[in-house]
Every structure is written in C-alpha cells, then in structure tokens.
Queue: 2 jobs
Job 1
Amino acid sequence: MNCARRIVAPRRQTSKYGPLREYLWRRGTFANLITLSFSKIEGIINADLPFNALRNAKWWRNTEATTQGYAWTSVGWRAQNVNLEDRTVTFKKQLEEGKAGHMKKKRRRRTKTSQTPFTPVPVRIRRIRQPSKTRIAQALARAKNVERKKASKPYKTKLKPKSAYEKRIYDPEAKPTS
C-alpha cells in the first residue's frame, strides 16, 4: 500500500525543518505571535531537536544561513524569545510583505485565445465479426456430443461389466480347489 501511495502522491523533498516552516506559514493567517514548546516542535518535525538547540540560545538565530533559521525566516517569522529553562520559543510574525508571500503559489494567467468551436474526436465504429464456418461446425459438433452423452446410459445395470481379463481369470464353471 505504501509503495502505491509513494507512486501516486510522492512526498516533496524538504529539509528536516520543512514541516515547521509549513506549520508557521499556516498559523500566520491566524496569529502574529506563537509560543511553542520544544516538545511541540519535535512533534511537528517528527524528530528530536539537536542537543545544541536545547542548551544554546544562539541556535535559534534568525538567519537564513542555517536550515532551521531558513524554516521560519522564509515564511515571515522571527524567533523572538527563547527560554531554555521552560524549553519554549516565541515566534513573532514580521510585517514585511516580501518575506511573508514567499510560500504563496503563483497563479498563472490564461491568455485569451480565439474561441474555436468544439470538434469531437472521430469515433471508429467497431464491426462485429461473424464466426467462421469451421468454428460454427466445431461448436455444433461439441453440442451434439454433449447431448449424446447425456442421452446414452453407459450401463444397463448398476454393476459395471467385467473386462476380458477378469473373464479369463475367473471361470464360473470351474470348481474351486482347496
């Protein structure tokens, strides 16, 4: 099942912090300030945060040079307050439009073309082939054989007649010897 799912809907190749990026992008439509615990972030990215993130506040810098920094700066967020004791980080939404619109998909405009009338694809009518005379004769012969077999009774009695070999071995007129 999973193999088929990968073929039908393959996953996009993203960084480890891609799910955090998408989470912040979605939350940006509802809130300007988000406080996330480290365990919540680990749940979002479906992996453990590195040891440096838990012990060093510099890991949470707002720079696009690191993969984690790119995850929130590319969608218009900044890590504002990192509390290592409570294990929380507060993200604030930037007011710049250039950064926030990064995740929006660009819509392609259709160019107006001259309207041409719809012409359906020509359909080829299938001709039904007649069976050959040989095939008809074979089918009729098979049907007759089936009817003959049903009509004829193989034996007149319930007992099967003896074969020639059995007749030779057992002679009803011979007297048994002891």
Note: The radius of gyration is 42 Å.
Job 2
Amino acid sequence: MKTVYTDDHKLRNVRTELHGGLLVSPHECPERAQFVLDQVRAVRLGEVIAPLRHGLEPVLRVHDTGFVEFLGRAWQDWSAAGNRGEAIPDCWPARRMAQRRPLSITGQLGYYAMAGETSIGPGTWEAAQAAADVALTAAAQLGAGERSAFALCRPPGHHAAHDLYGGYCFLNNAAIAAQSLRDRGANRVAILDVDFHHGNGTQDIFYDRDDVLFVSVHGDPREAFPYFSGYADESGAGRGAGCTLNLPLPAGSTFEAWSAALETGLARVASHGADALVVSLGVDTYEADPISFFKLRSADFSTYGRMISRLDLPTLFVLEGGYAVADVGVNVVNVLTGFEIG
C-alpha cells in the first residue's frame, strides 16, 4: 500500500487550543504525523510518495467559495488587524441572530467556525491545502488501479463542512477525495468514518446526495463533541434520504460493541453498491486517548482492518484524529496492515 505524505503539514504548528477552560498546547500536533510515518516505514507498508499539487478546483467541488477565500486570508487579515495571538473566534451567529457574513475578521471567524477550540496561525492555510493534495493524490492511486492507498493527512478534515471549520479541521480531505473519485468515473462512493467523533462536516457535504453514502460509528453526541450532529435519526434528506447512517455508542464502549456497530455499517456499505470506499481513519477510539471515551486496544485496530478488507472494494484511508500521540502510529498502521492481510 502506498502512503502519500508531505512535510508541509508542519507549516501548521499552532501553540493554543481552548480546552477545559484553558489555552493549552494543541492535542492535534505535528508529532502525530511523524509517529504515523515512522511506523509506516518501520513495518515497510509500502512506498511513501509526495503529493502532486491539484489547485483549488477539486476543493471547490465540495466547499463554498467564500469560505475557501476566508481560510486563504484569515491569518493575514487577523494579523493586519493588530491581533497578537492566534486567531480564535469569540462570537457566533447563534439562534435568532442574523446569519450574515461580517466585514470584521473577528466576526468572520465566528461566522465560519463550528467550534471555538481550533486556532488559526501562520501556515494553517498552506498545511490545509497540502493535506487536500495528499488526499487527492492518494485517491488518484485508486484511479490508477491500486487496491488501496493511505493519505497521511494533517490537519485532519472530517469536521470541516461545506462552509465551516473547527474540530482541528479546515478542508474536508475525505470529502474532497470522495468527490474526486466520483469525478474520475465512480458511479457511487461510500465513506466510512471510524473516528471517535462524528464526521459532521462530511455528513453536511453529502447529506442530500444519493451517490455518496456516509456511515459513521462514533461517540454518542449527547456526551461527545460535536454534540449537535451524529444522532441516529439523521439519515439524509431529499435524494439523499437513507444515504446517511449514524451509529452512536455510549461512553465506555468496548470493541465488542464497537465492532458490532461496524458490522452494521459494513453491511450498509455493501448494499450501497459502491465502486470505491473512503475510510476516515481516526484512531481516537483507543482506550488511552485523552479526549475520547471508547475502549479499543491496539490489537483491535488490526481486527477491524481485516473486517473492512472483506468488502473487497478499492479503499482509500484518510488520516483523521487520534491524540494518544505516542500510540497513534501503531494503531493507524495496525488498521492498514490488517486490511492488507485481509
């Protein structure tokens, strides 16, 4: 399995995250990608290649133009306004307030943010663009006939909606890749999100479409971020009715319960008739993850890699979350090697 990777992810190296009422060092840090890359090389998973540049056209296939333009200049505008810290929103258009995009950069941050923990700093936009290029280059491997590929993306993407960022995510790498597979000729694509947190952004992008199935196994949003997305009764709208399947699980869920939900999701993927599968591969389901509450062990990741392999679909793995940093590489690569073994 080829891995697509670029050091450009290091351009995003912010110092602040709002967590537990404090500004702390971010859980989503450059070391995450390095641990994964080291493990990919340690097990000799396959060739590591650099991404090609794809420009903004494939990004704009799933994201709003005004939103992308905002991300492209947010740090510059924030700095030009005289702010000395990293850019974090402090006001949102809440219920019954005007849903209008302000001129002020501070107002724009709130307009485009779905959460307030994620700061924007120098290099954030460049790293987000590079992550999208990683996903697109890996998707092209499937188009070239490869059975599988791994997009070692950072920053992650599944919380980024059509016109919203947050949850450490700016551009939705998995959604961009899925759309590119459609544009390359796949009639139907399935996205399987195994990150602990619900992929609200991916759901938002494809919610009213029947050509891209979205299946997610995640922490019950009554108890877990993003709180306002991922309930079992969210199943799609319009032409997309029935093309979203949410499988929320309670705190403390073990692999037995989690894998049973995964089996349900895999059965739905199989019935969708997809030509390709995109896996939003978050490993924050791990028992030692600091911001999650499932109880998967490292060996379980190998097991569910084999489960996914049984679908026998061209499969693109896109890195999402996982914040027990020292163990991220082992857990991610366990999924990939499990899939390869089948």
Note: Strands lie at 2-4, 17-19, 22-24, 48-49, 148-151, 189-193, 212-219, 244-249, 276-281, 315-319.
